[in-house]
DNA sequence: CCAGTGATGCACT
DNA sequence: GTGCATCACTGGC
């Protein structure tokens, strides 16, 4: 009754929300959707939210170690393309203390944006949490799920779209990864510290990977294109790689149609994948 | 190996 | 108050 103003513009279902800082109602999606807004949109606040976070200027050493970083054009492609292209690439993390962690990406999922019922941006919803999904391709989106676990995403070309990185094959900094994971487990059940995790158990799941790689919520809104803590490199070793395309995990509540779309991708036969889809795999032969 | 389940706290009806 | 884009553990094969 009161706000039927989007019928003349787009199909977007604009929802309102509260900013965490002030009680100001958002009324838009992003950049170009900013129009006349009945005075309830605080544009300055929106633009501040959409701004990429940046680190202090990088040192020559830092410039050197991330010289092989993949550029903006790698991320500026449709979501499903990025999700598949990113398989086999090397995710590199530089910790504050200088330690380098590396892993080969072996499992991803696409979240297509405003049309995708399983996406946080379904119907163009904007919240303080999901803003990174509307930002430039390559923007990092980390959120907390089930109260205690992190998921790491990278925004892609379409509005509100992002790729979820689910699993890595650990390549470098494995001792540090074990330490990170043990610390986490230790806080719950100290006995388990004695058990050494297998390499393929370090990063075979979205949250395990975040723990091993020390990827946290505060890293949201940084860009894979210029933050010197995290980037992706091409894999010089081009190995044979079959890709399995199957339904995504953990989105049952999105309804049958979207829950069944084959938007999860993983390297066939790889030990570090979080969960095989045996039905789909059987159909490959 | 696999399915079932409790934990846990934040984001948002 | 409800619902998670998960994990670690358990007990069954």
UniProtKB/TrEMBL annotation:
Q: Can you say what this protein is called?
A: DNA-3-methyladenine glycosylase
Instruction: Provide this UniProt record's keywords sorted from A to Z.
Output: DNA damage, DNA repair, Hydrolase
Q: Which NCBIfam families match?
A: 3mg
Q: Which InterPro entries match?
A: Formyl_transferase-like_C_sf, MPG, MPG_sf
Tell me which species this is from.
Ceratosolen solmsi marchali
Checking Gene3D superfamilies in the record gives: Methylpurine-DNA glycosylase (MPG) (3.10.300.10)
The UniProt entry's GO biological process terms, in alphabetical order, are: base-excision repair
Q: What is its EC number?
A: 3.2.2.21
Stated family: Belongs to the DNA glycosylase MPG family.
Looking up HAMAP family in the UniProt record yields: 3MGH (MF_00527)
Q: Does the keyword Glycoprotein apply?
A: no
- What general EC class does the enzyme of this chain belong to? hydrolase
Q: Which Pfam families match?
A: Pur_DNA_glyco
Quaternary assembly = Binds MBD1. Binds SSBP1.
Its recorded reaction(s) are: Hydrolysis of alkylated DNA, releasing 3-methyladenine, 3-methylguanine, 7-methylguanine and 7-methyladenine
Keyword Cell membrane found: no
User: Which residues are the signal sequence here?
Assistant: none
